[in-house]
## 1
Amino acid sequence: MSTQLGVLAMYMPGRKLEELSFYRKLSIYGQKLGVDVFVFTPDDVDDNRSRIHALAYNQAARSWTRRWIGFPPIIYDRCRYHGADNYRKITRFRQKYTKLRYLSRPLANKWIIHRLLSENENIVPHLPSTIHYKSRKQLEQFLKKHPIVYLKPKSGTGGRGIVRLQRLRGGRGYLMQGRDAERRILPATKVTAANIPVRLAGWGLQSKYIVQQGIPLELKDGRVHDYRMLVQKDGHGKWQVTGCAGRIGPPFSVTSNLHGGGTAISMETMLKNRFGTEEKVKSIKEAAYTLGLHIAEHLETKFGTFCEAGIDLAVDPSGHVWLLEVNPKPSRDVFRLTGDLQTYRRAIRRPIEFALHLLEKKAAPKADTKPLDLAPQSQQNESH
Ligand SMILES: Nc1ncnc2c1ncn2[C@@H]1O[C@H](COP(=O)(O)OP(=O)(O)O)[C@@H](O)[C@H]1O
Ligand SMILES: [Mg+2]
């Protein structure tokens, strides 16, 4: 008998599902590995009769059909934050069905993740200096220490609401650039330190923002770049770096997110272009891979078992690797976009293989550590 894997999703306006093409591929790989994949949302659950009106992909007919099923033995939570209503629904589902086994889970906001990772001495050298926004004074102090500073909403995603402040020569203030909450590129403007909170009035700096040391990531043409790494549990329950790819932001953008117009490029090409020698490229890659694994392992001790994380990394001009962000529900599109189909396929297959491993072990993912903060990692979507 085959095993069932439930994908917990969320309806977007018009009852559309966000990642249907990913779920289709997941279903096809599932079938190869003896796993029936069912997709459902909290709206499809019949609480009274403990059954779910789930979607299953029919490969022969190339279409999705609905079927009533019981609760699958393991659930892959792919819900990303899309407004308070959706968030309530998913939280209610997870609170009601705590006994179910989950492959993935919400982590926490950027500030909490930063604090948790600061506990690990292997990771600390890779964390940009970061504070929670408190006051204009404190921001001014921070700006004196770092020539580039990023303001980021702690629960933001996709490059929304991110501002970069770059110190201008000769005490001429700062160049402010970024994207608003709708991800529109803001025109570059010159500001004084005192003026920044005024310019960003209404953005909720005090309640929502972290202030972070900016890593110089501009390429010769002025565009910024960074890397997206996918770290996943394999079929033996071991963390592996599935792959890592570079991303280049569009012109005039201080963020490189693909959903904000960024383009994907292989990590090797990117590193070779920047650092030339094979040895240097190899050592940077090794440092990045080691860091990715340390991050996943450390977070697992805090949150319990999960199957994957998308890790945004930066490599500064000296070749030092920095962590920008951890995403608990990563997309794997970056590998499709670089044409690295082998990695792309492996990235789809691994959650299924890990689910099988968990089920074979018949051991519930360790729920020994209580999730710390289930506040919307806002949409860890694109980073999703
Ligand atoms: N400290 C930083 N230094 C340089 N660039 C940064 C920094 N933080 C973020 N960025 C840029 O902004 C992008 C989005 O930031 P990130 O922290 O990943 O938030 P989001 O959740 O919106 O993706 C990054 O991919 C990177 O291009
Ligand atoms: Mg990101």
Note: The longest strand covers residues 239-248.
## 2
Amino acid sequence: MPRILVVHHSKTGNTRRIAEEIAEGCDAEIEEIVPRDPHLGAWGDLIDGLQAIAGMRPALAPAVRRPADHDLVVIGTPVWCRSVCGPVRSYLQAHAGQFPAIALFCTSRWPGGASVLRDMAALCGRTPVATLALREHEIVWRQYGARLDEFLRLIGERRVEPLLAAHEVPA
Ligand SMILES: Cc1cc2nc3c(=O)[nH]c(=O)nc-3n(C[C@H](O)[C@H](O)[C@H](O)COP(=O)(O)O)c2cc1C
């Protein structure tokens, strides 16, 4: 059975909510990316924003699961100052070269998710099999069902490829 891992960071729950729905929709394991020293409150948001602008990579708590043990890794980030959030940037760097197939998603308040997804793909060094950029209001009002279904369909197509290939190998 192909193994899928959904990794994400979330401060206020939007990205976590989508990560949980993706994991449920494709029968995946899930892992939250946790900074070693989380920045809390308004002051913490300011530090996180400045670090995101500077492309800094905060230290992370140890990961439990290894991307290399999976067939596909779904990676989700909130947009911070038009960038990948610091903890996800750290995770991508820590696991560079270890990613199998990837799918990417992000959540943001304003438009601009597409460029963050492109940056994430570049940091992974891979072309994603599926991408999904959701806005906060879509999440709050649950207006993402059809797009999430399409994202899961693309992941599902990628997931069955190795099985089909095994069956189709000529005797
Ligand atoms: C430090 C910080 C910077 C942010 N910068 C942006 C931004 O540049 N563009 C945007 O659309 N949303 C921005 N947001 C809003 C978040 O991307 C949005 O609320 C997201 O859904 C939060 O995800 P979460 O609930 O998983 O933490 C920012 C939020 C924080 C905390």
Note: The chain has one domain: 4-168.
